[in-house]
């Protein structure tokens, strides 16, 4: 992991304005004083300092709050990874960050933690949840909505306020 610049270094390099950094002085020939720092790559802004790339969200956090402990990450409260305004950033654990992730597009059930076991003689929906790096199977169900409910109950138990629950339409 890249060692981040200190708060003092960042204050010397940048002026903060509305979630962005402006260069206080030109870091190289093609960048002028006052230019917005960074480039967008894969939905996030990265800023190059001394030939090392850093996430702008982490740099903004350090600029205002100082160091980030190794076991914590900087999260975007509104889910917009380009909104690096300090009021939109919070420090959370990696597990809390994983809980917040959206249901993958490849998910066929439409519910978080629910998949179809189509290898069994009778097709059933399996509910599972990942806790502390380990997957726990919660059971198999005839209806995907029942499996989603089982996931919701486990998520509430394990993750409390950080739980992202399935919006269950109906039990058919």
Entry summary:
With 172 residues, this protein is an alpha+beta fold. It is built from 4 helices and 10 strands, in the order αβββββαββαβββα.
How would you characterize this protein structure?
This protein is of the alpha+beta class. The chain is 23% helix and 30% strand. It contains 4 helices and 10 strands; from the N terminus they run H-E-E-E-E-E-H-E-E-H-E-E-E-H. It has helices spanning 7-13, 56-65, 94-99, 144-159; strands at 14-17, 20-23, 39-41, 44-49, 52-55, 72-76, 89-93, 114-117, 124-131, 134-141. A 3-stranded antiparallel sheet has the order 3-4-5. The chain has a 3-stranded antiparallel sheet with strand order 8-9-10, covered by helices on one side. The chain has a two-stranded antiparallel sheet with strand order 1-2. A hairpin with a 2-residue loop joins strand 3 (39-41) and strand 4 (44-49). The longest helix is centred in the last third of the chain and has 16 residues, at 144-159. The radius of gyration is 21 Å and the shape is elongated. The model has no long low-confidence stretch (mean pLDDT 89).
């Amino acid at each position: 992991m890249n060692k981040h610049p200190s708060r003092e270094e960042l204050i010397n390099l940048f002026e903060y304005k509305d979630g962005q950094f402006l260069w206080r002085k030109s870091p190289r020939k093609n960048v002028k004083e006052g230019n917005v720092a960074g480039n967008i790559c894969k939905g996030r802004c990265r800023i190059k300092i001394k030939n090392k790339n850093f996430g702008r969200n982490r740099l903004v956090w350090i600029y205002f709050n100082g160091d980030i402990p190794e076991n914590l990450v900087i999260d975007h409260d509104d889910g917009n990874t380009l909104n690096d305004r300090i009021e939109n950033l919070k420090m959370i654990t990696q597990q809390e960050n994983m809980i917040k992730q959206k249901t993958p597009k490849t998910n066929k059930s439409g519910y978080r933690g629910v998949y179809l076991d189509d290898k069994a003689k009778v097709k059933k929906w399996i509910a599972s949840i990942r806790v502390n790096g380990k997957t726990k199977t919660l059971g198999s169900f005839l209806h995907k909505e029942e499996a989603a409910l089982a996931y919701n109950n486990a998520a509430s138990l394990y993750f409390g306020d950080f739980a992202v629950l399935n919006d269950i339409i109906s039990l058919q």
